[in-house]
Amino acid sequence: MSTEDEPVGPTPPIPVFIITFQRLSSLKETVKSIENQSYPTQVIFIDNNSTYKPLLEYLKKRENKGNYVFWNKTNDPFGNTKKCIKKYVKKELLLTSHYFCVTDPDIRLLHSDCLKVYIQILNKEKVFCVGPALRTFDIPDYYPLRDVVQKQRDHMLQNVKIKHDFITEDVTYCFWRIDTTFAVYNINIPYRRACDHVGIRVLDPYEAQHLDWYLNAYNLSDDQRYYIEKSLNHITHWCGNNDQRTRKSILNDIEKNLPGTIHYRSKGISGENGKGLPGSKGPPKNTNK
Fold this sequence. Notes:
By secondary structure, the chain is α/β, with parallel strands linked by helices. The protein contains seven helices and eleven strands. The chain has a nine-stranded mixed β-sheet, with helices on both faces. Strands 5-11 form a two-stranded antiparallel sheet. The termini are far apart. Residues 1-7, 236-247 and 258-289 have low confidence and may be disordered.
C-alpha cells in the first residue's frame, strides 16, 4: 500500500484497539491522546475479563456512545487480541481503513500528528509495524528501574540505523522490535505479536510515554491498587523478564503500600522495610504526580 493508493475523499478513521484489564486512570489518558490525533480514529476496547467496577462502567458508557467493546470471558490478552482483531477486520474494516492500531492501556502519545507520521512511514518502509519510541528523560527518580530503561533506550539508539529526510520534514526513526506498546499495522498483514518482527520506533517529537514508568508506589490511585492486587503474578513492566528477583522485590515493596488484603511473598525475597523501592531514593517528597 502506497500513499498513492489512499482513497479519494474523507479519510476513513483508523481503528485503534486498546487492550484493557482492571485499569482506568491510565486508560483514560491513552484514549485522550488517541482522540486528540489529527488523523481520524475509532477507539475499540478489548477487555480481558476485568472485574474493576469503575472500569466496567466506563466501558459500558463508551459502548453506549458507539464504541465497540469486546467483552472477553478470559484474561488472555494476546490470544484475545488476535481473535478480536481478526473478527472485527472481517466484519467491519475491509471497505474502510487500510490500517489499524493496537495498544496497551498505558501509552500516552505526545504529538497530535503521531498517527499521521506513523502511517506515512509504514507506507514508505514496508515494515511489519510502526510506533513510538518511549520517552525516558522525564521518568521520575522514584521509578526503581529508571536507569535500566534508559540503558535499553541507549542500546536501541546505538545498534540501529537512524533515518532522517522524510517526506515534508525530517523525522528520526529507527528499526526496532515493538511488542503491544503501540503500533500501526497494515490491514493486509494478519496481526501477531511484533516482538519477533522488524518494526520502526519513531523518535521525538512523535514519541510516547509509558505511564507505568511514572507510577508512584507511595501514592497509588484506587484502580492502580486494584490492578496490582489482581496482577501480581503477571506484572513484568517494572523490570526485565530475566531479573525476577528485582521484580519480586519491587512488587513486595508496592504491596506494603496496599490495603492488607493480599499476600505475595517469595522464599528468601522480601521488600526492604523503610528503604523505599529497590534502586530508588525512597518515598518522594512530592507525591502529587
